[in-house]
Design a protein that fits this description.
Layout (H helix, E strand, L loop, with lengths): L2 E2 L9 E2 L14 H6 L22 E3 L10 E16 L7 E10 L2 E7 L2 H8 L4 E14 L6 E10 L4
Parallel strand pairs: 6-8
Antiparallel strand pairs: 1-2, 3-8, 4-5, 4-7, 5-6, 7-8
Length: about 160
């Protein structure tokens, strides 16, 4: 990495040197990943605003405070992966993968952008699939129409 390149509330961003290639140096164990979980009692930014299909899945851009960053690693025990057609009522239906879970007593229903999870579930049937215990990397995306959306960027289970 060349240098930090923060953008709005995404304080973790860095400029990556295009002249170097990444190489896999190892994989974290479940225990190592679990040790990196953000403490309980820390909400997923501001709750209380939901998109048409989500629940507590967005934050007004003005409420995305830079010091809070844009990433959280949380532990959940009630994860449900949901695959369904969304947007058909607007004439642009598309199958979507979302995660439903509770964090610190607050329900969330967020888009899953983890490529491996998306591919796995989009190749199957629509439905609700319990994963239960998982670590989730939640990312606060760049603002779109004055909202920053909460996304499940990675799903880590004891099995993977």
């Amino acid at each position: 990495m060349i240098e930090p390149r923060t953008h709005l509330f995404q304080i973790e961003n860095h400029l990556i040197d295009a002249d170097y290639y990444w190489s896999l140096e190892g994989r974290a164990t479940w225990r190592q990943a679990h040790a990196a979980v953000d403490g309980n009692g820390k909400p997923l930014w501001h709750n209380g605003s939901s998109s048409y299909n989500g629940v507590n899945d967005r934050v007004a851009e003005v409420q995305a405070i830079p010091k809070d960053g844009s990433l959280r690693l949380i532990e959940v025990t009630d994860l449900r992966v949901c695959v369904a057609l969304e947007g058909a009522e607007f004439g642009n239906g598309k199958r979507k993968v979302r995660g439903r879970f509770t964090h610190d007593g607050v329900g969330h229903y967020l888009s899953i952008t983890d490529p491996l999870v998306e591919r796995r579930y989009l190749s199957g049937e629509d439905g609700v699939f319990p994963l239960d215990h998982a670590l989730l990397c939640i990312s606060l995306g760049e603002p779109f129409n004055d909202w920053a959306y909460k996304l499940i960027a990675a799903v880590i289970t004891p099995q993977n």
